[in-house]
Amino acid sequence: MAYFGSVSETLNVNEIYLSLQGESTFAGLPCIFVRLTACNLRCSYCDSAYAFTEGKKQSLPEIRAEIDRLAKPFAGRDIPLTPGFSPVIQRQQQAETVSSVSGVARSKLETQNPKLPLIELTGGEPLLQKNALPLMAQLCDAGFTVLIETSGAHDISAVDVRVRRIMDLKCPSSGEVERNRWENLAHLKSTDEIKFVIGTVEDYAWVKEQIAKHKLDTICPLLVSWVHPLAPDQQDKSLKKVPAGQTPITRLDLVERIIADALPVRFQAQLHKIIWPPEQRGV
Length: 283
Hints:
- It is a single chain.
- By secondary structure, this protein is α/β, with parallel strands linked by helices.
- Helices cover 25% and strands 20% of the residues.
- A 9-stranded mixed β-sheet has the order 3-1-2-4-5-6-7-8-9, covered by helices on one side.
- Helix 5 (201-214) links the parallel strand 7 and strand 8 (222-226).
- The radius of gyration is 20 Å and the shape is globular.
- The relative contact order is 0.17.
């Protein structure tokens, strides 16, 4: 596996910003995005081609300082991720439990909920830079819930087990389907997520086949996104073309197929492209 950048304690960073998590099972929560520079894939629908080359070298302490600055207003704000959660009931349960447990158990109770904001490493392709690994470990040590958005083309086994890995398996219309690293499936945990970006009828059939073949729904949550059309200035000349003979699928058709087939996936509407202009950066 080829890596981008040097082995010193730096990363090539495209941008760091605070926004809402627009996708995944964490959609809608405040999140600090660390977008790293460089990607070795050229998916036909890529909407962040600017991250292929744009960026500047920053030390890990500099990156941590910016993250801490953006996270400061959220100090002390935790959020339980349990479906059906009631803060009133939880406070009652905690009070009852704390009154009857040791100091060690109390400490675990007080830190069991992830604190806000989330932190996500994205790109580009964050796993092209080796120092993404210690950065994620440091953020986990600091108590953050850390996500990484990575393609299915890179070895995920070295990523800290505390990190939530959102692995994007490339569908046929991406032009990069042959780059998927299927060995990664053995490393996925129940807290990880598999993402599919679907732009054609052929993509949908391929996704159905992979879910059945690899029993993906027994491994972790499955996410499905629709290919949002690129704005003119997003159509980078280096992107792959959709293979000839494929039939575009509409968002409505995709959703109706998912429902009709009872496909065990979570459809994503990409909140950031609904709230802000689809081509806007830093959101």
